[in-house]
Amino acid sequence: MSSKILIIEDEFAIREMLTFVLEQNGYSVIAKESYTDAQQALLHESPALILLDWMLPNMSGIQVAKKLKQSDSHKSIPIIMLTARSEEDDKIQGLEVGADDYITKPFSPKELIARIKAVLRRTQPTATDDPIEIVGLRLDPISHRVTVDGKELHLGPMEFKLLHFFMTHQERVYSRDQLLDNVWGTNTYVEDRTVDVHIRRLRKALETHDKLIQTVRGSGYRFSTRTD
By Cβ atoms counted within 10 A, which residue in 37, 103, 105, 155 is the most buried? Predict the structure, then answer.
């Protein structure tokens, strides 16, 4: 299931551009032009992140952020401020009222997506220290041991990280780029075909359980116990 992002931006052209970029990168989008409209949306939706414009009519983005962070229902939703202000004091003001990050206009789609991914990783950690077991395949994050039906498997560091990510994100298809971002990290510059190499190594190591990692042609890879 894709992450849902709420945009609060009063300029139509920017709102449309943001919606297009986010949807092209696999996000579900709710776009509103004011805090009043956004309040109505928040009654029925639970976004994973809010993109909030600094300059809004009637109520500034700073005021909106403060209200959201004071609300028991919405204070846990991360906020990225969109601002034309590049002064350090302005940025600090935004962070002090609870914004998790800010991005200064004009910005590139690539920078926007990178910042969204970074905030989501910080605020929605997926790692767990509890052992995970699926159809006889067991991964222990603490001891870094993987076993199949009690037999220990020997995985390289990246194969272990890749398997851990897959086992905690079952039944969803991830592209090579998404796997690179989530497993290798956005600051690591490697070719997307590197993913294929590590997938092959991981499948080989899994032996009888290699079919858990499925290739979805034209889309990427999925971890699934289903064979249909």
Answer: 155
- Model pLDDT for residues 11-46, shown as the tens digit of each residue: 999 999 999 999 999 899 999 999 999 988 888 888
pTM of the model: 0.56
**What contacts 24, CB < 8 A, 6 or more positions away?**
none
**Among residues 123, 140, 170, which one ends one of the domains?**
123
- Which of 205, 207, 208 lies closest to 154, judged by CA? 205
Q: Is cis: bond before 106, omega within 30 of 0? A: yes
Are the C-beta atoms of residues 50 and 5 closer than 8 Å to each other?
yes
Residue 83: strand, helix, or coil: strand
Question: Domain containing 10 — which CATH number?
Answer: 3.40.50.2300
- Give domain status of residue 228, yes or no: no
Residue 116 lies in domain: 4-123
Q: pLDDT digit string (tens) for 64-95?
A: 998 888 887 788 788 999 988 766 666 677 77
